[in-house]
Amino acid sequence: MKNTIAVLALSSFFVFSACKKTESNNINETEAAAPEKFTVDSVKISDSTKLSDSLTVKYTSKMLLFPTVKDKKLLDSIYFTEKNIGDFSREGVLNYLQKSKNIYFNRLRKDSKDWISDISFSQEWYSDTAMKVKSNTNDYLQIEYFWASYEGGAHDNYGYSERVFDLQNNKKLELKDITSMPKEKLEALLMKNINRTNSGTIDEKGEVNNSEMLLVDKIPATENFYFDDKNLYFHYSPYEITAFAAGDITIPISWSELKGTLTPEFIKRMKIK
């Protein structure tokens, strides 16, 4: 009888151990299968140098880092403004920015030799670039790229680029991935909606409509777009479609205006009704 009890007890122990081992293996497998959490980091450098008593030059640049993005083709697309990064690690991007800064300073130092003595009053020239995440919704990563510079003249210059990246399919999103509407019809909607978001420009008569400052007969439907749960937005830099005084212009097109042309996948992922 005692031997029977001992055998039963030992059997129960092995069964219990086997269950615990199986449970432990299942936990490890589950943890290994869990996707890596999407993260965003950044690096920034800011430096200045004096080319003469009258001229100071400043360089500032901020670039985003995406440690969890491993697809090189997607990373090349994300850093489309910078063609020779190669190393997308923190150290690699920081080294790239340091080289870009030195190239900028050396270029102005070389170019200024013939005319720098003609500068009779104190000036600060600069180059400023930055990246900013506008949103990351439904695996659509939207990034805004900004640049501004001044190298003499009446005023500085600046501009924006908008890009959307499909993290599920590791690619840059294009207009055709959102809507099948022909560009001619999109451009008609852009012209129709030009004054929906005013630039804030005023003159002696008061507020000036964007349409009054147009430099083009047709507003192009470019790949410089982004979106939210209500609209598709096209972003235009100064001089692109309007006078500099208008600043940058953003024109919305609502999802209802694009009804019947939105792609099924986009409707599903953005939960558009």
TrEMBL record:
What domain of life? Answer: Bacteria
The record's listing under InterPro entries reads: DUF3298, PdaC/RsiV-like_sf
Annotated signal sequence range: 1-17
* Record protein name field: RsiV family protein
Q: Where do the DUF3298 domain residues begin and end? A: 182-256
Please tell me the species this chain comes from.
Chryseobacterium gambrini
Q: Which UniProt keywords apply?
A: Signal
Keyword check for Signal, yes or no: yes
